[in-house]
Design brief:
Length: 323
């Protein structure tokens, strides 16, 4: 059956002849059949990016009530309101996680047309554990909000950091994704991370471990790799990369996975704009400051400031009229 044209769009006659349409459709259909990497033709149980984003929206109502979702919540009805939110999140998230778990339960080729009872059992366990951790997750986010306010004199109130700061938006989504990542949920944490990346320009892999009271100032272009470990009370500015120095390969030439590839920042480390810190064995000690533009691939002991060569400045006199 041909797809229906939306009611708000006029019917447009194809400029192609029926014969030409037959040729093109046959070629494209053959290309789809020939490449299993880029298609799943029956996808009843395939995770949906759209559904995951919808779950995030409802989660934000629990994590930042009043800022997101209903504007008025009666104290006496708060528990019932929360109960409804949990029910609204649990169902869709269950289906997305159950679908994603097929990637670890199934052998190639993965089939998304058949029910997977084992995936359902595991998904229920994940949902229960995740929702049980919401209070501790909210506590962490409260500390992040306070860190953003304390770390930026331009902020007039903690509310402003929730409404306006991309670092807070990226961080709450990361903390949600990280909880699922720790429970070995495939795919869904990456979907969450990439949604946050699209919205904020901040790219945090869900595997990155980030301590309490973390602040990302401005944020655009920040990259934090999968095996990064960040301590408490750290701050990074725009354009910072916490990345891998190189990618090791095994005897067959394949990339080695599951190794520590990204740096570790101890407590109270500040990394200024445009700095790059690389390597799984690179450890930045407590109370270190990494100046802007530094390229660093070795460990630094606690209590040091790292600066790069000072750039030379040259002044040329303008010959035009400056009066």
């Amino acid at each position: 059956m041909a797809p229906e044209i939306p009611h708000d769009q006029p019917s447009i006659e194809s400029p192609l002849s029926g014969e030409r349409l037959d040729v093109l459709s046959a070629d494209i259909a053959d290309s789809i059949k020939d490449d299993q990497r880029t298609r799943h033709l029956t996808t009843s149980y395939l995770p949906s990016r759209r559904e995951v984003i919808g779950v995030l929206e409802r989660l934000s109502w629990m994590l930042f009530p009043g800022f997101n979702g209903p504007r008025t919540i009666d104290d006496g009805a708060l528990q019932e309101h929360t109960r409804q939110l949990i029910a609204g999140v649990a169902g869709p998230l269950f289906h997305q996680i159950a679908g994603a778990l097929r990637y670890s339960e199934s052998s190639d080729p993965i089939t998304f047309s058949e029910h997977c009872p084992d995936c359902d059992v595991r998904a229920r366990e994940v949902i229960d554990n995740f929702l049980e951790n919401i209070p501790s997750l909210r506590k962490k986010l409260s500390l992040d909000v306070q860190a953003a306010y304390d770390g930026d004199p331009a902020a007039h109130h903690t509310d402003e950091t929730i409404f306006c700061y991309p670092g807070i938006r990226a961080l709450w989504m990361h903390r949600v994704a990280h909880e699922l990542y720790k429970m070995q949920v495939p795919l869904v944490p990456r979907m969450i991370a990439e949604h946050a990346h699209e919205l904020t320009g901040i790219d945090i892999h869900p595997g990155a471990t980030i301590g309490d009271s973390f602040f990302i100032d401005h944020g655009t272009g920040v990259v934090i790799g999968e095996t990064t470990i960040i301590g408490n009370n750290c701050k990074v500015y725009q354009g910072v990369t916490l990345g891998a120095r190189s990618f090791e390969r095994d005897e067959r030439g394949d990339l080695k996975r599951g190794t520590k590839r990204h740096p570790t920042l101890s407590d109270h480390v500040t990394v200024y704009a445009g700095a790059t810190i690389l390597g799984g064995d690179t450890h930045i000690g407590k109370y270190c400051v990494i100046a802007g533009g530094v390229f660093l691939t070795r460990s630094i002991e606690a209590g040091h400031t790292v600066r790069g060569p000072k750039a030379g400045v040259r002044l040329n006199e303008n010959r035009g009229d400056i009066s």
